[in-house]
Amino acid sequence: MSDIKKREFVVGVVFLAVGLGYLYMTSTLPRKQFIDAAFVPYVLAITMCLLGVLQLWDARKLAASKQSGGGDKADYRTVSKTLGLIVAYAAFLEPVGFPIMTIVYLFAQFIVLTPTDKKVNYPVYGAIAIITSVTVYLTFRYAFDMILPVGLLNGLMN
Amino acid sequence: MLSLFQQGFEIVFTVQILGLLFFGTVVGIIFGAIPGLTATMAVALFLPITYSLSTAAGISLLVGLYIGGVSGGLISAILLKIPGTPASVATVFDGGPMMEKGEGAKALGVGIVYSYIGTLLSIFALMFIAPTLAKLALSFGPHEYFAIAIFSLTLIVTLSSGSMVKGIFSGALGFMFATVGIAPVDAITRFTFGQTELNGGFDILTVLIGLFAISEIIKVAENVKTEKHATINAVKLKGFGFSLKEFFEQGWNCIRSTLIGTGIGILPGIGSGTSNIVSYMIAKKRSKHPEKFGTGIIDGIVASEAAACSAVGGAMIPLLTLGIPGDTVTAMLLGGFMIHGIQPGPLLFVSQGPLVYSIFVAMLVSSLMMLVCELFGVRIFVKLLAIPKHILLPIILVLCFVGAFGLGNRIFDVGTIVFFGLVGYGFVKSGIPQTPFIIGLILGPMAETNLRRGLMLSDGNFMGFLTEPISAAFLTLAVASVVLHIYQHHRKSSVLVTA
Question: Is position A48 within any domain?
C-alpha cells in the first residue's frame, strides 16, 4: 500500500470513528421532540459517518502506484520533543508558576530547535529565557493588569 | 454619515490610538515579512493586550496588525523568493525574477504602492457597501440568517482547494465543537462531560490560537533544524522605484485586481491567500503578452499585491454587516469584538455608529502608515528577516499561552489551545483544510439557533425557509454551489480517467 493510500485510509478511519463516537454521545442526549437540542448533532454525526465511508471509498480507489513523491522528510524527533515541552509547559504552568516555567520551557525549547549547523549557546539562551519571562510577566502584571500564575514564587511575589 | 465620519476621526486622532495603529502596522509588516509568521498569528498574539484598552483602541491595534500583516509578505516574496504569507504567493512569480535581474528595488516599490492602492480602494468599497448592506440586513430574521449561514458553510467547502470530502468534514467538525455547551432555545447541556468550564462552549479565540498559531509552531519544528538559510540581498529604494508612465499603464490591471480581491474577500472563509493567485491568473490570461508573466514584469506584482490587499476591505464587509468573518484574520477580529462585549452585525451600525466609522478611519490611517513604513523602513524589515526562528517561535508560543490564559484567567484555556494545536497539526498532516473548521465553529451556532427560532416562528413548518424570498434565494444558491462543485469534480475525474 502506498504512503498516500495508507494516509488517506487512516484519515477515513478517523473520520468514521469521530462520527460514530459523536453519534453515540448524541444518542445519550434527552429527546423532547423531532427538532430539539439533539437534532443538529444527529445530522452532523450522520454526515460525518457518511463522509468517513466516502473517504474510505476514495482511499480504496487510489492507484497503488501513486507514491508520495520522495516521502515525508519531517524531523519527527524534534516535533515530538517540542510537543512534549509544550504539554509539560501547559501542565506545570499553574503549580510551578509562569516565571519559572517560562524560563525552563524557553531554555529547553531553544536547545531542541537549534539548527544542526549552529552551536547551542547556553548563556545566551539562558539570558533570553530569563529576560523574556520577566519582561512578559511584568508587562502583563503592571501594564495590562493581568495576573499570571506565580506558583512556587507565591510567597515571594505577593 | 458625515457626522459619523467626523466622530470616527475624533476617536482615532488621539495620541494613544495613532500610536497603537503605528505599532500594529509595523509589527504586522514584520509578521507578514517573516516566513512562517502570519497576520492571523499577529492578531492572535496581540488580542490579550486589547483587554485593557477601549474598544476603539483595541480594534485599531488589531486593524493595524491586519493591514500590515497582509502587505508585509511582499518583502520576503521579492527579496527571498519565499512568500511571507499566503497572500504574497503570486508576488514571488514575478518579484523573484525581477530581483534576480537586479530590479529588486523596482519590484519592491511596485509591490508597496499597489498593495496600498488595493487596500485603499477596498476600504472605500467597504465604506460604501457596508452601511447599505447593514440597512438591508436589519430586516433579516431567523429564516434569512439560517439560510446565509448554510450558504456560507457550503461556499467555503466548495471553494476550498483539495478534497471536497475533507473540506466538508472539516466544516462539520468545527460545527461539532460548536455544539459543546448549553444548547440554544431549550438550554440542555451537551457534551460537557461534567466540566463546568465547557458550559459556555469553547472560546473561539482559544480555538483560533491553537489551530493557527500553536499548530504552525509545531509544523515549523519539522524542519527548523535542517532548514537552509536564504541569503538576503540588500536593495536601495529611491522614490517609488517606477515611472509615472508605468503607473498609468497598470491602471486597468490594478482596478480589475482590486475588484477581484474585494469580491473574493467578501466571500466567507477565503481571503487574500486565494485572491492573489486568482488575480494573477486572470491578469496573465487577459494580458497582451502572457508569455512574459513569470519572467519578471511588474504586471504580475500589481495583480498579486492589489488583489491580496484589497481582500482586507472585502473581508471586513460580511464581518461588520452580518457578523460573518470573511477570512481567518477577521475571525480573530470577531473574537476581538466579543472581548469587549460587542456582537458585529447590522445592529452595530445603529448602536455603535461612531465605533464603526472609527474602524473605517483606522483602516485608512493604517494603510497610509503601511505605505510610509514600507517605503522608508524596508532596510530595517530586511534585517528582521534574519531573526532566527528557533528563538522567535518559542517566544511566540509563550505569548500565545499568556493570551489564552488572559481570556478568563483559567489554565483550562491554555489546555484548550494545546488541544486545538494538536488538532490543527493533525489537519496539516492529513491534508484537511483548516478554514472550513473555523467557519463551521463560528457559523454553526448561528445556523442552529436561527433554525430553531425560525421553526418556532413558523410553528415547526420547514416551508418558512423556502417561502421567505431572501432565505429561499440563499438556500437555492447553497444547493446550486454544491451541485456545481460535484459536477465539476466528476467532470475532472472523468477527464483524468480517459486521459
Answer: yes
